[in-house]
Amino acid sequence: QAHVCSLAQVPFRGAPCSDAAGSQVPYAAIMKQVNSSLSGVLWDELQKAPFYEYKDSVGQFHQVWFDDPHSISLKAAYVKSRGLRGIGMWNGNSLDYSREAAAEQQTQAMWQALTP
After folding, report:
1. Which of 44, 95, 96, 109 could serve as a FRET partner for 103 with CA atoms 20 to 30 Å apart?
2. What Pfam families does the database record attribute to this sequence (predicted)?
């Protein structure tokens, strides 16, 4: 099946496979790596989230799922449409707060996406 990345079975609280098998990647690293990835940005319509695929230096296949302004804005709009009291995200300090123009634009777009 296309675009399937199997996680190692790392049991966590009763789940046979969990994010305990993966790791968190800073948004800045994602934004730099996605353009040189095997796939470029892909979109999962069911999850309403972007992801990309790459192979590391030893040929191991990886898949990186992340949020971007589009996916965050869809989640924020859902919260608003249901009259919910708020939205949380994990985690704001993974954004790129450097003074680079591209980083400032990306970070600003992510924060703005939280308010539909």
Report:
1. 44
2. Glyco_hydro_18 (PF00704)
Domain range for 69 is 27-114
pTM (two decimals): 0.75
38: its two tokens: 């095997």
The reply to whether 21 falls in a domain is no
Q: Is residue 60 part of a domain?
A: yes
Domain tally, the chain: 1
- Provide CB contacts within 8 A for 65, sequence distance 6+: 44, 47, 49, 50, 51
What is the rounded distance in angstroms from the CA atom of residue 55 to the CA atom of residue 63?
9
Using a 10 angstrom Cβ sphere, with 0-12 exposed, 13-18 middle and 19 or more buried, the burial of residue 33 is middle
